[in-house]
Write a structure and sequence with these properties.
Number of helices: 10
Strand order of the largest sheet: 1-2-3-4-7-8-9-10-11-12
Shape: elongated
Strand content: 15-25%
CATH class of the largest domain: Alpha Beta
Bound molecules: iron/sulfur cluster
Structural class: alpha/beta
Helix content: 25-40%
Oligomer: single chain
CATH superfamily of the largest domain: Aldolase class I
Order of helices and strands: HHHEEEEEEHEHEHEHHEHEHE
CATH architecture of the largest domain: Alpha-Beta Barrel
Largest sheet: 10 strands, mixed
Length: 342
């Protein structure tokens, strides 16, 4: 028995991995997998004997399983997914007001970046996910609805696990697989400049979201330790390079923390940082997490801040939280039963 996932493999690789007699059987299995059929027994165009052999020798073509499902009042659905080694990750299906469904995928178990506003950051990094484990999250979520968009905004920093993330993107985009437009795929980063530069060099046409939180180095370093490695000047330089090389319009994610980054001074710094960048600032009121020391801004505080942003002609969008009541909103994902070294 094996836990090897077949997701992400080519037809040729499936043929070799499963020791199949005929190549067309690999194609049939590949097609079942894309349809979301993850039980060999249900692959009805494979002979009964062969199905029995596959179940006996390989058990299942998928290596992870959903162990918990939570749905909030907006329809946002959070899945807890157990991986082959017992690690647990979370993935979320978000639904917007136009019924657009987006898969929010994890790229790591935990995260090493330690952003102070984020629950995942409290876990530390347990391990990277493989491309198959990333793809399988989408397969589980797609059983809930017709998902058209993907964001790498779940647990982990995608640019710290770039190769598997790129492999999964290639698979999602492949015409033979899920055929999702690259423009509907967003990579979200805390600001790993070397990773942004790699995406620019590869001319990858996915969207980019960069978590900013503050446009002032001392404050940003306090909340996002990555700023000590790649400060705001380095970040802006890489974003300008991305922009000049024709990268699609990107967003700056601005997690609003009451009394911390929503005043006139913060708006001024933001105006200076965004000057010359063709970016939209996404205002995201902090999603509460009991163990973290922040407060969500009041509507009045948000309104005052947006008034400042209007005065400085900063392009922004106000985000309304989905998934908050099931701890599935931005920055709220964390699983308890993972241990380092698992
Ligand atoms: S915000 Fe993203 S990069 Fe920062 S700790 Fe959370 S998961 Fe990691």
């Amino acid at each position: 028995m094996t836990n090897t996932s077949l997701y992400g493999l080519s037809i040729e690789q499936i043929y070799n991995t499963l020791n199949l007699e005929k190549k067309f059987q690999a194609k049939q299995i590949y097609q079942w997998l894309i349809k979301g059929v993850t039980d060999f027994n249900l692959m009805s165009n494979i002979s009964k004997n062969e199905r029995e052999r596959l179940v006996n020798e390989y058990k299942s073509p998928i290596s992870s399983k959903v162990i918990d499902t939570q749905i909030d009042e907006t329809g946002a659905t959070k899945l807890a997914i157990e991986l082959h080694d017992g690690s647990i990750i979370e993935s979320v299906m978000l639904i917007d007001k136009n019924d657009r469904k987006t898969a929010c995928l994890s790229s790591q178990v935990g995260c090493a970046m330690g952003c102070k506003f984020c629950r995942t950051g409290t876990m530390g990094l347990i391990r990277n996910l493989t491309s198959s484990e990333i793809i399988e999250q989408f397969v589980h979520l797609r059983k809930l609805g017709n998902i058209t968009h993907i964001v790498y905004m779940g647990m982990g920093e995608p640019l710290a696990n770039l190769a598997p993330v790129l492999e999964s993107i290639r698979f999602f985009h492949s015409e033979d697989a899920f055929y999702i437009s690259l423009r509907r795929i967003t990579i979200s980063t805390c600001g790993i400049v070397s990773g942004i530069n790699k995406i620019t060099e590869q001319n990858l046409n996915v969207k980019l979201a960069v978590s900013l939180v503050s446009a002032e180095n001392p404050l940003r370093s306090k909340i996002m330790p990555i700023n000590d490695t790649f400060n705001l000047q380095q970040l802006k330089k890489s974003l300008l390079h991305y922009q000049n090389k024709g990268g699609s319009r990107f967003t700056l994610e601005y997690c609003m923390l009451s009394g911390v980054n929503c005043d006139l001074n913060a708006a001024k710094k933001l105006a200076s940082f965004t000057n010359g960048l063709d970016a939209v600032v996404n205002l995201i009121p902090w999603n509460p997490a009991a163990e973290l020391p922040w407060t969500t801004p009041t509507t009045e505080e948000i309104n005052t801040f947006t008034k400042y942003l209007d005065e400085f002609h900063i392009s922004y969008a106000r985000r309304y939280t989905r998934g908050r009541s099931v701890n599935g909103a931005c920055g709220q994902l964390a699983t308890k039963n993972n241990k380092k070294g698992n």
